[in-house]
Design brief:
The complex is a heterodimer of chains A (575) and B (236).
Chain A lengths: L5 H9 L12 E3 L17 H6 L2 E8 L3 E8 L7 H10 L16 H8 L6 E5 L16 E9 L9 H8 L12 E12 L7 E10 L4 H18 L1 H11 L9 E7 L2 E6 L24 E3 L19 E3 L9 H5 L8 E5 L2 H6 L5 E5 L6 E4 L9 H12 L4 H28 L22 H11 L11 H9 L2 H28 L2 H6 L3 H21 L7 H14 L3 H8 L5
Parallel strand pairs in A: 4-12, 4-13, 9-10, 11-12
Antiparallel strand pairs in A: 1-8, 2-3, 2-7, 5-6, 6-7, 8-9, 13-14
Chain B lengths: L11 E2 L20 H8 L7 E8 L5 H10 L12 E10 L2 E10 L6 H8 L4 E7 L3 H16 L7 E7 L6 H18 L2 E4 L8 H34 L1
Parallel strand pairs in B: 1-3, 2-4, 2-5, 5-6, 6-7
Antiparallel strand pairs in B: 3-4
The chains are: A alpha/beta (575), B alpha/beta (236).
Protein name (chain B): Ras-related protein
Keywords (chain B): GTP-binding, Nucleotide-binding
InterPro entries (chain B): P-loop_NTPase, Rab, Small_GTP-bd, Small_GTPase
């Protein structure tokens, strides 16, 4: 949906619901986000598809030409040459030994991510040694993995605003990735004597901005085998199926028909109780829903610093052909702030000077090698608890949950003082005047914050001892803090704007204009209109009804003006 | 989870809707099976959804048929279906909520190869032909054979539906119907003639599909449970 001008926005929002394209799949709201049910805007063909995927690519291997993108679906999707090259190289297993390598996590790795400011982390997977459960379960010769690559050009999507809307309710680790794409790969390699090389090698790649790893891998498992058997019409049909899906709104149970089955999905929201996963219950009524996904996102490294968001670059799968290969591997500078997942042994050698390396697969070398010196002391209690779990043969899912909850509480203890300090930067309510521009946030002053730690530091909620001050200093220099603070500042600024708007609403505007000249009244109307447009565009967190009330105020003022002015003011601003 | 809005009044089925013609019906009983009625009363029915696929030649009116029933609309302009369309329709049969998943497949030749992907696990197959086009009836048999390749013939209900009744000349209609009924008997399908333009028999037809798939679903669930119990008794 193109948000070109306020006129269009209003018109489309006023469209009666019956004329909207009715979703073929049920959308059942569940208890979750407090947001009121908002009508879905008018969607054009391919808008629904674009809300899920950028495109689907087929990457083939030609003996003469090497890798090439053979097909892009839908045909109108745009990829730059550079993006195509990235997709080509990243869609094939490196060093010809690729297998799905699962995500994993460890205590030290978490600390390393926390401090990953200005130094890199390498996750080296020796694929030949992977335990059987991590090897793709599909038939031999099929491999699934995912990669992430930079978006070459900033495509201004007309859907942008509309999609941001969903992101608001998504947890940090499931937000749309700005500036990057994910590639979800289904690679097939089978013997074929009719081919020159004796092998058929092809990848089907879903390109998306959504980090729903588990979900897209399940989707690929349905589409890819059919595609390899039945070719292009299958892709056309799959894209058409996807273009009928409800949009990816967190918190709703989404029914997604695809290839003759219905997938059921619930995207978690940021309002979900931490540490719980609201599973989609498989009721008897779902007997035909072949896939019920409990989560969209695999257990991964980043969720263990939740509710913080990892804000640097990361590449689940990185190869020597990557367009950022030089940028990230040049030895002349300090290791970049990035996490790379690699399978090619070349990296383990070349980047052995990197401060954090996790080796997986090879039993002799498996482990976390980190130059990171922890600021906080070891927590013997949690270690004992986990060890006890090992002795009692507690299921690994339970162990995982215990560790995760522990990390979450620890990070919350760390974050609370920051939250408290940042909240104090908010101007007092009484300084908000409807007739002055909204007041500014006070700046974040590191030393001022540090002083608050003496009385209201993490010791209030955590018994863990250590150099908390040092940890804060380190954190305040990291991109993760920067990302966190930017986000908080944006939220607070919007809150201020919202309060300002509400204050305006409560004012007796009628009385006010009586004291002013016509020119001033016109000026007021224009300013109010602009504020209203901005509020709608930014989805300001105003009390329900505020927008409508303000609109009514504006209309009344306009009606009190001479007729010729009324005509002009009622006209929506030209784009 | 919040509850869904109530089922629309015209989707509530209390009595078994009748067949179109006695000559070609799944069965000719005039009420629901007794065990099914009892199970419904005691709320002991199992799965409450059925997958229905709609197949047939290009432009015979598969999408129009579904749109007439699901949305009560009729669009005169032809728009080819790409791949497969999907509609979910909610019913209440004998007081039990019941859903039909309607998979509307493309009639175009180039999509024929992928159709089998969509056929799997269907409880009912609706083969559609055009009452004003002989060729489409000839091809109905082929569509059916294709669809049956991926399904168990003993557990799938078949419907042969002639569309565009309003376009068919009375003489032609009589002759077409005769042949269609002959084919239905042969492939053990239930025959219906409808018009999506006027809406004639469309709702009756889908209510019949919902009722028969519901009945079959409940019976097969009961059978499965009984055999499980029998096994349990034997193993005890």
């Amino acid at each position: 949906m193109a948000f070109q001008g306020s006129e269009e926005v209003e018109e489309q929002l006023e469209e009666p619901e019956e004329t909207l394209r009715v979703s073929p799949a049920e959308e059942m709201p569940v208890d979750g986000p407090p947001a009121a049910e908002e009508p879905e805007p008018l969607l054009l063909p391919w808008d629904r598809f674009s809300a899920w995927l950028h495109c689907i690519c087929v990457v083939g291997f030609d003996l003469e030409l090497g890798q090439a993108v053979e097909v892009i679906y839908p045909h109108h999707s745009k990829l730059s040459e550079k993006e195509k090259t990235s997709i080509c190289y990243l869609s094939f297993p490196d060093s010809n030994s690729g297998r799905t390598y699962g995500h994993f996590f460890s205590h030290a790795a978490r600390d390393a991510i926390h401090s990953c400011c200005g130094n890199g982390m390498l996750v080296a997977v020796a694929t030949e040694f992977l335990p059987p459960h991590q090897i793709s379960r599909s038939c031999l010769g099929d491999t699934q993995f995912c990669f992430r690559f930079r978006q070459a050009v900033d495509r201004k999507s007309s859907l942008g605003c509309f999609l941001d809307h969903f992101d608001r309710d998504a947890p940090v680790c499931l937000k749309r990735d700005q500036g990057y794409y994910y590639g979800y790969v289904y690679f097939r390699q089978v013997r074929d004597k009719t081919l020159k090389r004796g092998y058929f090698q092809k990848s089907l790649v879903l390109v998306s901005k959504l980090p729903y790893v588990t979900f897209f891998h399940s989707l690929l498992k349905l589409i890819a085998p059919e595609y390899f058997e039945k070719q292009e019409p299958c892709l056309e049909a799959a894209c058409n199926d996807i273009d009928r899906w409800p949009t990816p709104s967190p918190g709703k149970i989404l029914s997604l028909p695809i290839m003759g089955v219905v997938m059921k999905l619930r995207i978690p929201t940021c309002y979900d109780k931490p540490g719980t996963s609201q599973l989609v219950q498989s009721a008897p009524s779902d007997s035909l829903v072949s896939i019920v996904l409990p989560t969209v996102h695999e257990v991964d490294l980043f969720s263990c610093i939740s509710p913080l968001r990892y804000c640097s670059d990361f590449r689940p799968y990185f190869t020597i052909h990557d367009s950022e290969f030089k940028e990230y591997t040049t030895r002349t500078q300090a290791p970049p702030s990035v996490i790379l997942g690699v399978t090619n042994p070349f990296f383990a050698k070349t980047l052995q000077h990197w401060p954090h390396i996790i080796r997986i697969g090879d039993m002799k070398q498996t482990g976390v090698y980190s130059a990171y010196k922890p600021f906080l002391n070891k927590d013997e209690d949690i270690i004992k608890q986990l060890q006890k779990g090992v002795q009692q043969k507690r299921p690994s899912a339970a162990q995982n949950a215990i560790l995760r909850r522990y990390f979450l509480e620890l990070t919350q203890s760390f974050i609370i003082p920051l939250e408290r300090y940042v909240a104090s930067l908010m101007p007092l309510q009484k300084t908000i005047s409807p007739w002055k521009s909204s007041p500014q946030l006070r700046p974040f002053i590191q030393e001022e914050f540090m002083k608050t730690l003496e009385k209201a530091g993490p010791q209030l909620t955590s018994r863990l001892k250590g150099d908390w001050i040092g940890l804060y200093r380190q954190f305040l220099r990291s991109p993760n803090f920067d990302g966190w603070f930017r986000n908080r500042r944006k939220e607070m600024t919007q809150k201020l704007e919202a309060l300002h708007l509400e204050a305006l609403c409560e004012e007796d505007l009628q009385l006010r204009i009586q004291k002013h000249t016509e020119v001033e009244t016109v000026d007021l109307v224009l300013k109010l209109k602009e504020k209203l447009t901005q509020a709608e565009k930014d989805l300001l967190p105003v009390k329900p009804g505020t927008i409508g009330q303000l609109q009514a105020h504006i209309d009344t003022i306009i009606l009190s003006l001479p007729e010729d002015l009324q005509g002009i003011l009622h006209k929506p601003p030209s784009p | 989870m919040s509850s869904l809005p109530p089922v629309k009044e015209d989707r509530i089925i209390c009595e078994l809707p009748l067949y179109f013609t006695r000559d070609a019906a799944v069965h000719t009983k005039d009420s629901f099976n007794v065990t099914v009625r009892e199970a419904s009363q005691e709320q002991k029915t199992g799965s409450n959804v059925a997958k229905v696929i709609v197949v047939g030649d290009v432009a015979v009116g598969k999408t129009c048929l579904i749109n007439r029933f699901c949305k009560d609309t009729f669009d005169r302009t032809y728009k080819a279906t790409i791949g497969v369309d999907f509609e979910m329709e909610r019913f209440e049969v004998l007081g039990v909520p019941f859903n039909l998943q309607l998979w509307d497949t493309a009639g175009q030749e180039r999509f024929r190869c992928i159709a089998s992907t969509y056929y799997r696990g269907a409880q009912a197959i609706i083969v559609v032909f055009d009452l004003s086009n002989y060729g489409s009836l000839d091809n109905a048999r082929e569509w059916l054979e294709d669809a049956m390749k991926d399904n168990d013939p003993s557990s799938v209900l078949l419907f042969l539906v002639g569309t565009k009744k309003d376009l068919s000349h009375p003489d032609q209609l009589a002759q077409m119907e005769q042949e269609a009924i002959r084919l239905s008997e042969e492939i053990r399908a239930e025959y219906w003639a409808v018009s999506a333009l006027s809406g004639e028999s469309v709702r009756d037809f889908f209510l019949r599909v919902a009722s028969l798939t519901f009945e079959a679903n409940v019976l097969s669930d009961l059978e499965r449970n009984n055999s499980r119990q029998a096994r349990d008794i034997i193993s005890k």
